[in-house]
Model the fold of this input.
Amino acid sequence: MPHHGFIDLRATLECGQVFHWRERPDGVWEGLIGNKFAAVRADGGKLVVLDGDPDEVAHYFALDHDLEAVYAGFPGDRTMLAALEFCRGLRMIRQPAWECLATFITSSMKQVAHIRQMSTALRARFGRAVRGTDLRAYPSPRALAAASEQDLRACGLGYRAKNLRATAQRVASGGADLEKMRELGDADLREALCELPGVGRKVANCVMLFGFERLSAFPVDTWIERIMKQHYWRGHKKPTPLALEKQLSSQFGPHAGYAQQYLFHHARMTQGRGRR
Done:
């Protein structure tokens, strides 16, 4: 079936929600959806699928999200409008839950380039080969559970290695069932994720947004904290990240996660020269 969703492919793949796609010199992007190879390019804001199942690719890139309806819920202030103008067409990717969870456990206190390096190293060392490409799938929970902490540290994870290994063991043993977690409401899902080693509220919100399609989840990192304090916070006291999240996620409505990502990507690219 045809898919007509407008997309800014570069912004979608470079905004810090997914870390393994690569661009060829001819403008084609190659990556994996789970353990399946896909090659795509943008043509006038339309996604062209060169390799891979078109419906699976369209689902992954959430071409069914009605972006105009999303934008209609954004506040109309100057900061948000500037981010929208810069990021129009950026879409929330529907990532495999485990890949998303594991990646964001490794993201703590790291910039996008470093997260990409760790993801690449983990895939190279522990991921399964995918036929027809040199890309490797993200390692399964079982593969990482069986790895030593030293082996994970060799992939550049530092102290994150212990947490990633411990969470992989929980998931591999069935102690944490990510598919069953999909049935939980937002508050219960956040609580369940925060029980896993290496998952605090910010990482949990990232996983909810990118791995469980909870579009109201509002991760507060240092970029967002700075933006919120400068442009949105109306309290007299210095706000905590939790206070910012609770007040402002309601202000940004049911698609707060989209607003967050637009604000984050705009600030990172215009103020930080591409750093996270």
